[in-house]
Amino acid sequence: MIFDAIVVGLGAMGSAALYQLSAHTPRVLGFDQFSPPHTMGSTHGDTRITRQAIGEGAHFVPLALRSYAIWRDLEQRTGHQLLTSTGGLFVGQPNSTVAMHHKPGWLDTTIRAAEQFGIPHQVLDTESLRRQFPQFRYRPGDIGYFEEEAGFLRPERCVTAQLEQARQQGATVRTQERLLGFTATDGGIRVQTDQGVYHGRKLILTTGSWITESLRQTPYRELLTVNRQVLYWFGIEGDYTRYTPDALPVFILNERNVYGFPAVGGPEGGIKLATETYEYATSPHTVDRTVSESETRQMYEQYVAPNFVGIGPQCVKSVVCLYTMTPDGDFIIDQHPEHRDVLLASACSGHGFKHSAAVGQVLAELALEGRTGFTISPFQLSRFDRS
Ligand SMILES: Cc1cc2nc3c(=O)[nH]c(=O)nc-3n(C[C@H](O)[C@H](O)[C@H](O)COP(=O)(O)OP(=O)(O)OC[C@H]3O[C@@H](n4cnc5c(N)ncnc54)[C@H](O)[C@@H]3O)c2cc1C
């Protein structure tokens, strides 16, 4: 059989693409080298922040809004809760130029995007912050952007739900199967795996941090950087109910480079906190997946103790995860530079999950119709070309 599309990599982007494709045609195949959801890539760790006014750039807002609608529809179809709206609190200094995901002035851009798209929000002064959210320590002059519909997604559940729906709609899903290579044919693409050969009209590569392997022979081989990140769950020492989703929104302390989630694992489950680090480049093959005691201690001393009230040094759990970064923090959603029937969607630069449902729709539209109604020019590889 010739598939209408073959999706390689069934993490956030690939499971979404397969689900969206299967709504239009059952002649779609998706496969992954592991059994998603798994802990080897970028889509694990219980929760992901979602928000609508996107500080990484207003061009992301349509993707975020469309993803909200898709998650809510998927919840109806599957009966699983995927998105919990807790509100989102994003704290920083007014007019700060501090970057997040390589985007300077992130907090200001967030506020402007909310105004531009009419996204319900409030801007709180330091006094209001202290009164409403005493779980944090504030700096003089801090302001808080509070977005009502922000919250968290359950990444593993989202992947499972989309793969299940794709299967039900007729898609073929294969796990523990690794892509070895692909070549152009008359009618599309011949795909070689460690288990066999498939033919597709289109090939979609959503291989996350492994995408660098598919760019090796192209001018973009040096473009992407994979960074090791660690997620920590620290024990709650004070009143647990102050940290549950009813009382605590998802949060980002912008200048202090720390973000986190309300506690979802019960009184012993801890509160999930993380920082972002771009110091060392790594790869999914060579990354150190163990978390040392010294880095846990450093996380507590540098990021937890100075910024939070009632969170102790005991680390309940930690896990390593991978960011795949472009130089500008935008994604790559494009045709492969050397194969017109191959699409790439990856390098989600540490903030891709919230957009992934809509990126799946974009990929399905591009693969089946050759065009999409979403603006994807900011995500094309040609933006990195030098004249
Ligand atoms: C610590 C951390 C925190 C984050 N927090 C947030 C957040 O709060 N909000 C947010 O929106 N985003 C967040 N992100 C980003 C978001 O999670 C990622 O952008 C997204 O999950 C990336 O999904 P992906 O599908 O590109 O990659 P992955 O989920 O890694 O999927 C790639 C898949 O391709 C498969 N694959 C690779 N090569 C092959 C091959 N040769 N053959 C077969 N299969 C292959 C892999 O096995 C894998 O399953 C965070 C990321 C990390 C690491």
Describe the structure.
GO terms for molecular function: flavin adenine dinucleotide binding; sarcosine oxidase activity. It holds the Pfam family DAO. The chain is an alpha+beta fold and 387 residues long. It has 2 domains: 167 residues, FAD/NAD(P)-binding domain; 207 residues, D-Amino Acid Oxidase, Chain A, domain 2 (2-Layer Sandwich). Helices cover 23% and strands 29% of the residues. It has 7 helices and 20 strands. Strands 5, 6, 7, 13, 14, 15, 16, 17 and 18 form a 9-stranded mixed sheet that branches. Strands 1, 2, 9, 10, 11, 12, 19 and 20 form an 8-stranded mixed sheet that branches. A hairpin with a 2-residue loop joins strand 10 and strand 11. Helix 1 runs parallel beside helix 5, helix 1 packs across helix 7 and helix 2 crosses helix 7. The radius of gyration is 21 Å and the shape is globular. It binds flavin-adenine dinucleotide (FAD).
SSE string, helices as H and strands as E: EHEEHEEHEHEEHEEEEEEEEEHEEEH
The name of the CATH superfamily of the largest domain reads D-Amino Acid Oxidase, subunit A, domain 2
CATH architecture of the largest domain: 2-Layer Sandwich
Distance between the termini: 43 Å
Largest sheet: 9 strands, mixed
Bound compounds, each kind once, are: flavin-adenine dinucleotide
CATH fold label of the largest domain: D-Amino Acid Oxidase, Chain A, domain 2
Identify low-pLDDT runs.
none
Radius of gyration: 21 Å
Mean pLDDT across all amino acids: 97
Total beta strand runs: 20
Number of separate helices: 7
Share in helix: 10-25%
Counting helices, strands and paired strands, the structural category is: alpha+beta
Name of the top-level CATH class of the largest domain? Alpha Beta
What is the assembly state of the chains in this entry? single chain
Number of domains: 2
